[in-house]
Amino acid sequence: MTTxxxxxxxxxxNTLTANRLPKWAPVAAFAASLAVxxxxxxxxxxTAGGEANLAVVVVVALVLFNVLxxxxxxxxxxxxxxxxxxxxxxxxxxxxxxxxxxxxxxxxVVGDGTKRFDLQYFTExxxxxxxxxxxxxxxxxxxxxxxxxxxxxxxxxxLLTSIYLVEYGRGALARSITFFVDVMTGIPSIVAGLxxxxxxxxxxxxxxxxxxxxxSVALSLLMIPVVVRSSEExxxxxxxxxxxxxxxxxxxxxxxxxxxxLPTSIAGITTGITLAIARVIGETAPLLLIAGFAxxxxxxxxxxxxxxxxxxxxxxxxxxxxxxQVYLDRAWxxxxxxxxxxxxxxxxxxLIAKIFSPKFGR
Length: 362
Known about the structure:
This protein is mostly helical. 72% of the residues lie in helices and 0% in strands. The relative contact order is 0.10.
């Protein structure tokens, strides 16, 4: 005769899995908050006469979401887990609030800019155009020429300065260069335009001078500190063992820099240069001062006024004609073009960093 023994029940539960909110609870809480706020805003706006603002709805919904999730977690999971969820939700809320203006900007620019994003806009200038029609070919050309020359000026100066600071610079001179680079990093763009205007006015004895070269010089003043700082950081992370190995083989210092240090850091340097171009390509104030604005094509950087996309957007928006909407459509299309150019530059920077980054393997 056999007997079966039953395991005694202790009544102990696993506190790591008991009383936990399901994984979909935060998503459901945010959806419920969004629905409640949207409904309340819609009712309020309907009684007052108007439409619910989507940005306000999202902000209020995020606040309500934090409160709702904390209360649910406190009631089900306890005070400790509720505090953890509250802090985590605050992080996601901060990210959402930071992302909200960017999304709003992109939606607005794309929605309003596509109205004139046509072939005519990219193949015609504003010469003899006072109403509908016309395009921004002269502004796009001017932007590419001025920014390209600014890059040719800034990259050698900035790269050689960073090489000096990392490889050769010691003492008061290096500290002075670093100090002035830091100062240049924070100067307003209008100051760079005023400097270029005053410099060429004195040199060429022309108080009303306006030309593309001056715009390139103004932009290079803004680009150089960015190139110096980014290149300096990339050169610093090159392992000293690579330099020492080259010196041990009898390679001189200048050739070590050229053949070892620069190829190792070329990906980061190129990325920094591309981001510096993206930083200055949308500047308006210095170009308005020294490059001026025009309605026709100008391929000569050394003579006459030259239009750029930021100045084109500003003039179309600030000085509309009798048909205001036509000018605003051209301004929004110019803004969309600038956004696409900056996006393309950032994608190129990422691609260059991926292609030229050093490959380590056995």
